[in-house]
Amino acid sequence: MLHVTQMSWxxxxxxxxxxxxxxxxxxxxxxxxxxxxIHTIVERLDFDNEKMESITAFHAITGSDTTSYLYGHGxxxxxxxxxxxxxLLQGLGQGELDDVTAKxxxxxxxxxxxxxxxxxxxxxxxxxxxxxSAPETLPPTGDALSFHIQRAHYxxxxxxxxxxxxxxxxxxxxMGWRMxxxxxxxxxxxxxxxxxxxMELITCNCAKRYMSARxxxxxxxxxxxxxxxxxxxxxxxxxxxxxx
Length: 244
Fold this sequence. Notes:
Strand content: 5-15%
Helix content: 40-55%
Structural class: mainly alpha
Oligomer: single chain
Strand order of the largest sheet: 1-2
Number of helices: 10
Number of strands: 4
Shape: elongated
Distance between the termini: 63 Å
Radius of gyration: 23 Å
């Protein structure tokens, strides 16, 4: 219900700028019908028009009927991030999807994962992986996210122009979709989710800086990686020092 109400807010603001109106959202079931006064909700909200202008983009990029959602990040969780970083989504659904808009959308997704000072989801994945986060809780790869952002951009454009008789929309096949027979299906990724080399990744759990004879990396004659417990920084590898 939250996302439906958000969409109603957006259209109410655009309609009310032309003439005073009241907007009601019909909800519930046939046996238990209810009507929600959207105009009253908007009047009570402490939101300016700038924040509300991006609300359709927020709904698209965090999951809708046509765009996927991010595992473990429901609307309420994402909404808290949106209230602070809504400007990162202002370009979605407007004109062509340029590099700046796509990058800002990626930064917004990074904010959802609460990883400080990162500018790419791939870096966020690396940091969370080192912290032994469960695979399903990691952000999408940069490759997969690029297609998700394209679909969110397209869907937002559709919603932004829903009141237009002749909307100006890009071809869906250029926006993260592909044709299979007579149906459009999402393109999830163009690269493998895990590089082949990482399928045989070896890491150690050495607690000390210098490795013991039991160290997996030492036994395999490999360098320690960022996932090894003995690593203290991106440029430090006790493996190399121990073998000198």
